[in-house]
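Dear Dr. H.,

I hope your travels went smoothly. While you were away I took the liberty of generating a structure for the chain from your last submission, since the lab meeting agenda had it listed for discussion. I wanted you to have the full record in hand beforehand rather than looking at slides cold. The sequence, exactly as received, is reproduced here:
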Amino acid sequence: MLSRFLAVVITLGAILFAGWMALKRDDIPYEQLETIYASSDSRFLALDDEKRIHFRDVGPRDAPTLVLVHGFSASLHTWEPWVADLKRDYRIISLDLPGHGLSRCVDNGAIGTEQFVDIIDRVVDALKVERFTLAGNSMGGGAAWSYALAHPERLDGLVLVDAAGWPRSEAESKDRPVIFRLLEIGFARKLIKDLDMSSLIRSGLEDSFANPAFVTDEMVDRYASLARAPCHRDALLALSAGEGTEATAQGLAAISTPTLVMHGEKDNLIPASHGENFAAAIPGAELKLYPDVGHLPQEEIAAESVADLRSFLATRVYPSVTSETTPTN
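The corresponding predicted structure, in token form, is as follows:
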């Protein structure tokens, strides 16, 4: 009887191992990823011989500068609809944070908001940009308001798009999409680290839009492929396991930079109430809530959100800049 039981256990173990091996995916070299996801506007800031930060720098060099920072597991590609419109009138710098996109990892043991703030500062320093408006989505929004607190003298404006950092209630934590709750479990992180995550990535992306039809095979392939860059999976799992920087009303009250808060009312990742809290805590902040919009307004309602951004910049930040053309979709 015992021998039969052991045989069953061994057989099941072999089947599970075979399934795991079938789903296992190797890293994709940066050079291969760059042939697909870099563009003629791509540039790299070398931190040392091996560590490089990918960014794009477009638009008139004598125009006011906007710096755009993406969210968790995303890349600078999320800003392409905004960049296409804004580059007529502004200098636009978009970057891949360490462990994301085509950027190398810097130090996964220290990855998080403080590192991101430092990288933003190093990129603008390298480009000799003294003052700029900083926009961040999700995790990038958390880096943006943290940057505003650390370097207020450098910012003309601050734009928080479905920004992370407001403390979650217990109920809000339980309501998050399954992929994010799964990544909080240490054993699950180790088990799925090297596996094909395409189905979970698709599910997570569909949860990021109020209209899941925005999620395409090309988008899923891009997220999945860039996550397989060397060390990126370790970086994403380290971020999932780490303690994020939390905002407080008292701390945010120190921000004097003109601020625009944008938030989709159907955001399944970060509740719209968090956007309202940011706007209430930052003195003079302007709030734009979007019905029937999810976590990525810069993609889901590109024309409307960029028009609101232009209005904010024209009235609160750079009143001398106007556009003679109609914003594009």
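Two observations you may find useful: The chain has one domain: 30-317. Residues 207 and 231 are 26 Å apart (CA to CA).

With kind regards,
E. W.
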